[in-house]
Design goal:
alpha/beta; Nucleotidyltransferase, domain 5; 2 domains; 5-stranded mixed sheet; 4-stranded mixed sheet; about 30% helix
Length: about 210
């Protein structure tokens, strides 16, 4: 199986091609903004390096967030547009789940993933042996700290650790990890739908939330 993985949820723009055994090609750049302009050439480059055609790809794995409202939609839109003519299934995985897998690759621990989503809020989720036991939720920093400190866990991961006076050992989300994790998932259990940390600020005329 060949998997194409995409992540544009944060300052990094990342793409990877893997099979079950190894990384075929991988590119990751810290660009801040401009993911929409950079992603397509990046995917084209790694496909050329790996000598892979679109018809060779068996599935696409895309990070669904949380992250930049605009950024996370870039990879989702690209994945769906790329997949449609080739009938490739698309799997969506949250950054929280991927980060948990990165710090616990054997998936035999209890992990809490925590992301700073600004506005004095944290988005977090908890996993035991790779299985989600607390779904992603966004809370104030104080409420999140109270809830998380009440849990029993082996590891914590994510940029939200700064609010616990701890250092995050994972610099950024790994596109190869995103790809490998999706091999055991399906579009039915993990659809490619955006995970927003909070509702959009935009409102329709009259104050109606879209």
């Amino acid at each position: 199986m060949i998997v194409l993985a995409l992540d544009t949820t944060g300052p990094w723009c990342s793409a990877a091609l893997v099979n079950e055994a190894r990384i075929l090609a991988h590119k990751s750049e810290k660009i801040g903004r401009g993911h929409a302009e950079r992603l397509a050439p990046m995917v084209g480059g790694i496909m050329e390096n790996a000598q892979i055609k679109a018809s060779d790809i068996n599935r696409i794995s895309v990070c669904t967030g949380p992250g930049s409202f605009t950024g996370l939609r870039v990879a989702l839109a690209f994945a769906k547009g790329f997949a449609l003519p080739h009938k490739i299934p698309v799997i969506g995985l949250s950054a929280l789940e991927v980060l948990a897998a990165q710090i616990d690759p054997s998936q035999d621990k209890r992990v809490v993933s925590i992301m700073d989503v600004r506005r004095k809020e944290l988005c977090w989720a908890a996993y035991t042996r790779g299985v989600e036991i607390h779904a992603p939720r966004t809370q104030s920093i104080d409420d999140a700290k109270t809830a998380i400190n009440a849990l029993s866990f082996d590891h914590m991961v994510g940029d939200g650790l700064a609010h616990f006076d701890l250092e995050n050992s994972v610099e950024h989300l790994s596109a190869p990890a995103l790809a490998w994790l999706s091999i055991e998932r399906t579009p039915q259990t993990h659809p490619a739908a955006p995970l927003y940390s909070r509702p959009p600020d935009a409102k329709l005329p009259g104050g109606i939330i879209p």
